[in-house]
């Protein structure tokens, strides 16, 4: 698993088509909210499948983050808007927030 994460990180860092975008904007809010919802949904699904709390958290967050990375990969096509590390940062922030909100709802 560690090798997969390392290779993915190296592969994603080599994007030659990157976006020149701002840290704020409507699309950043959409990245944040979509990632939060996907993370919470992934946590709920994993718990429904019988996973413990730690595995549910990992499942939900990785589900959300991997979809965000996939979206950025799609954007990095020559005809796309370019890979945006800022969008990806908002995806990670949203995923973390979705996890925290899901945890608070299950206390």
Report on this model:
The protein has 107 residues and is mainly alpha-helical. It has one domain (25-105). Helices cover 73% and strands 0% of the residues. The chain contains 4 helices and no strands. The protein has helices at 2-12, 26-48, 53-75, 85-105. It is globular, with a radius of gyration of 15 Å.
How are the secondary structure elements laid out?
Elements: H1 2-12, H2 26-48, H3 53-75, H4 85-105
Structural features:
107 residues; mainly alpha; 4 helices; 0% strand; globular
Question: Helical percent range?
Answer: over 70%
- In total, how many beta strands? 0
Shape assignment: globular
* Domain unit count: 1
Q: For the report, how would you describe the main beta sheet?
A: none
**Which runs of at least 5 residues are low in confidence (pLDDT < 50)?**
none
Rg from alpha-carbon coordinates: 15 Å
Approximate strand percentage: under 5%
* Spatial separation of the terminal alpha carbons: 31 Å
Class from helix and strand fractions = mainly alpha
The total of helices stands at 4
Would you tell me the overall average pLDDT? 84
- SSE order, one letter for each helix or strand: HHHH
Summarize, please:
The chain contains four helices and no strands.
